[in-house]
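does this look right to u?? flavin-adenine dinucleotide version
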Amino acid sequence: MKTILFTFLAIVTSAWYLALSATTFPPDSALPWIIRQEGMYLTGLLSIALMSLTMLLSVRPLWLEKPLGGLDRIYRLHKWSGILAVGFGASHWLLKLSSDIIKPLIGSAGRLPKIKYEGLLEVLRKLGNDMGEWALYAALAMLVFTLWRRFPYHLWRHLHRIMPVLYLMLAFHAAMLAPPAYWAQPVGALMAVFFVIGVIASIISLAGMIGRRRQVNGSVLSVNSEGDVTEITCQLDEPWQAHRPGQFAFITFDRIEGAHPFTIASADRGEQTITFFIKALGDFTQKLAQRVKAGQTVMIEGPYGRFQLAVNQPDSRQIWVAGGIGITPFLAWLESLQARPEEAREADLHYCTRNRESDPFVGRLQKLCAALPGIRLSIHSAKHGDVLTAGALRLAEGQKKKADVWFCGPSGLADALKKSLKDSWSGRLRFHQEAFEMR
Ligand SMILES: Cc1cc2nc3c(=O)[nH]c(=O)nc-3n(C[C@H](O)[C@H](O)[C@H](O)COP(=O)(O)OP(=O)(O)OC[C@H]3O[C@@H](n4cnc5c(N)ncnc54)[C@H](O)[C@@H]3O)c2cc1C
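got this back:
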């Protein structure tokens, strides 16, 4: 993700630099005023470019799943490009305000002349200026709500719907206030591409068309609860694009509540039924077992994601690690292998739970793994003092020099394992992680 963002920023900065190289400033211009103006152009450009990227990623572009590694990663990139966009927007605004510091220090004499507009263009430019300011205030407020983890997710989601409107206001601001000379240079072409992408994505979002082609209706077949986990099986009314084990879908039980993402924990048997295991983790999921009844209609959108069983890497050791509800993609993997056990690779599956005795998945896992001799199941029960460490995973290092760790679970555990393994693993190690968080 860092490489993608860095490359993106480097391309946009290079386009700005080309434009800067072609600019001739009046001979009496003072350097602080030049820095202020060019700084404003650069930060404004970076902000709108990142905002356009954020908008593109928000429409769940399937064609980006492969290069970016799945929709969960697309959302992570969406989040960070959005945060950076607002950050550059704030710097742009601070640079604008910096005239109040520069003027008393060096005076207005070396200030760059303002570009003159007339008639309708001047009216639109002023409108663009005001729009940009108000949209930036709103985007800054949105950033605070995004980073403030205690702000309820369902409220945040509704507020977040304003983003395409803010984007359109910011794009109008950028188009009206960019220097006219930009439009005859590569930077202008780049901006035009960003505007087209961002405006189309905003329209798709405002028209409620995100993921529409992947939505199918269905009904709840059964609801079973065990502890804080609810198993829900749905029957789909319309043909479902076959899902691969480990993929997830957005499920809507109630239009006002909206869609929530859950891993499809069952293998695709062509019967158009899919099963989810849902843990009570927040306000909606805590009431789910009481609210959802067999026979009720649902809408399912998907499948998405690339947390997929690797069948074609015979030279790499497979280490699968699940924490709590993060076991769901592995359940789908194991279930799909029941029909073709000959395809089952050797793998070490580590399942971390609070208490193996009350855990709803332990029995199911043991049953699924019993039919797959290559899969070595280890249950780590915190209550019994068995906590998974990187040391336990290193025991699997063996002869093979390559290893693939597939992880789904709490990000704290992932970070600790990743760091410790990267420091100590002697061969080549790839860490694949399904993120259960989109905000
Ligand atoms: C790819 C993926 C696969 C997942 N698979 C499973 C699974 O198999 N089983 C399971 O129990 N949980 C799964 N989750 C997590 C599940 O989506 C959240 O626990 C659930 O949406 C929480 O909703 P809430 O209103 O009860 O909680 P809240 O307290 O409102 O939210 C808790 C957190 O859940 C996330 N969340 C809440 N609502 C949404 C939403 N509409 N869209 C996206 N994220 C949301 C946010 O990160 C939020 O901070 C998965 C998440 C992702 C991203």
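The chain has 14 helices and eleven strands. idk if thats expected tbh
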